[in-house]
Structure formats: structure tokens, C-alpha cells
Amino acid sequence: MSKRPDIVNDLPDGSREELYFRKHPAARGELAMTRKIVGSDGQTREVWHEVYDRAGTVLHRHQIPIRRGGQS
After folding, report:
1. Is the pTM of this model over 0.70?
2. C-alpha span between 53 and 38 (Å, rounded)
3. Are 30 and 22 in contact (CB under 8 A)?
4. According to the model, what pLDDT value does residue 1 have?
5. Are residues 61 and 51 in contact, defined by beta-carbon separation less than 8 angstroms?
6. C-alpha span between 8 and 53 (Å, rounded)
7. CB neighbours of 20 closer than 8 A, spacing ≥ 6?
8. Which DSSP symbol is given to 16?
9. Has residue 63 got a pLDDT over 90?
10. Are 17 and 33 contacting, i.e. CB atoms less than 8 angstroms apart?
């Protein structure tokens, strides 16, 4: 991800959670978000794509493969 996260939360184990939100809700009000967990060493550990409805219920969630430099 090349842009800056919208929200950064420090986690108890020294890692951090970065949240990236879609700027505009979908037609029915759904909010899409990417959640990225970065370890204390700066390496990405997990990346998730999540979609919530207006009430905050998870409609869709899946893990995204981590891309490392030099891989296609």
C-alpha cells in the first residue's frame, strides 16, 4: 500500500494495526476497509479486506496474500 493509513492503532505485543478506508460508502451505505497488521520489525504480518453495512455488521471478510518485493 502506498498511501498513508487513515487510522493507526498500537497493539499490546508491539505491532501495529493500520486501517485504510474507502473514501466513499457504496450505493447502499456499505463501508469497505483494509486492515493491515505490521510487526514490531516493520514487516507486514496480515492483510484483511472487510466490508461493513450501516449497522456495523460484517458483510464480507477475507485475508489478502502479502506481496513482497520482487514477487509477481
Report:
1. yes
2. 26
3. no
4. 53
5. yes
6. 22
7. 1, 3, 5, 6, 33, 34, 35, 36
8. E
9. yes
10. no
Of 34, 28, 29, 25, residue with least CA distance to 61: 34
- Grid coordinates in use for 39? 510487526
Cβ atoms of residues 33 and 19 within 8 Å: yes
Q: Which amino acid is at 34?
A: T
Q: ∠7-8-10 over CA atoms, to 5°?
A: 150
pLDDT class for 70, splitting at 50, 70, 90? low
Place of cell 466513499: 24
Cell numbers found for residue 14:
508491539
DSSP 6: S
- Provide the grid cell at 24: 466513499
pLDDT digits (tens, 9 = 90+) for 3-53: 899 999 999 999 999 999 988 777 788 889 999 999 999 999 999 999 998
